[in-house]
């Protein structure tokens, strides 16, 4: 008798999600839906608002600043929360929040928003010359702001 016997070591619910895509102005809506589904599966619904808004900001930055608009999204369930990473091939200038943004321009506040929303975030250069912008939202908020991975 041949049959399927699932591994007793395999998680019944995947603990990570990875997708490589070319993003456009409507991509954030689809990515928010994907994130919401995984957060529900991981019983982390209470993090949905922060994760969706932070992902929207990172995807908008790819649309605005990455010449080919290609990136890889990684959602990773952690022991006490979730980590999200957006990686692209464009190293350029690594993003950093402005100390005091000018009150008039409509742009330039995204990383300040990210800093206020998530528990930790940062930017890491990749071995291939690109960058990964990441953030973590936890069940028990720690010190807000940027930190090393």
Q: Summarize the amount of helix as a percent range.
A: 25-40%
Any idea what the radius of gyration is?
Answer: 17 Å
What is the number of helical segments per DSSP (H or I, 4+ residues)? 3
As residue ranges, the low-confidence spans are 143-148
Task: Tell me the number of strands.
Answer: 5
- What is the rounded distance between the termini? 48 Å
Secondary structure class reads alpha+beta
User: In percent, how much strand structure appears in the residues?
Assistant: 25-35%
Give average pLDDT, whole number: 84
Bulk shape: globular
The biggest sheet, with number of strands, parallel, antiparallel or mixed sense and barrel status, is: 5 strands, antiparallel
- Spatial order of the strands forming the largest sheet: 1-2-3-5-4
Secondary-structure element order, as H and E? Answer: EHHEEHEE
Provide tags for this entry.
alpha+beta, globular, 5 strands, disordered C terminus, 5-stranded antiparallel β-sheet, 149 residues
If you had to describe this structure to a student in words, what would you say it looks like?
The protein is an alpha+beta fold and 149 residues long. It has helices spanning 27-41, 48-65, 110-117; strands spanning 16-22, 70-78, 81-88, 120-125, 131-138. Residues 143-148 have low confidence and may be disordered. The N and C termini lie far apart (48 Å).
């Amino acid at each position: 008798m041949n049959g399927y016997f699932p591994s007793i070591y395999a998680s019944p619910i995947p603990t990570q999600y990875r997708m490589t895509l070319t993003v456009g102005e409507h991509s954030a809506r689809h990515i928010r839906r994907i994130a919401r589904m995984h957060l529900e599966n991981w019983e982390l619904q209470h993090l949905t608002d922060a994760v969706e808004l932070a992902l929207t900001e990172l995807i908008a930055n790819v649309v605005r600043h990455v010449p080919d608009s290609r990136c890889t999204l990684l959602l990773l369930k952690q022991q006490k929360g979730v980590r999200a990473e957006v990686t692209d091939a464009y190293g350029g200038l690594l993003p950093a929040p402005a100390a005091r943004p000018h009150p008039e321009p409509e742009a330039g506040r995204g990383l300040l928003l990210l800093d206020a929303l998530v528990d930790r975030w940062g930017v890491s250069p990749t071995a291939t010359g690109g960058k990964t912008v990441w953030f973590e939202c936890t069940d028990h908020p720690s010190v807000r702001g940027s930190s090393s991975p």
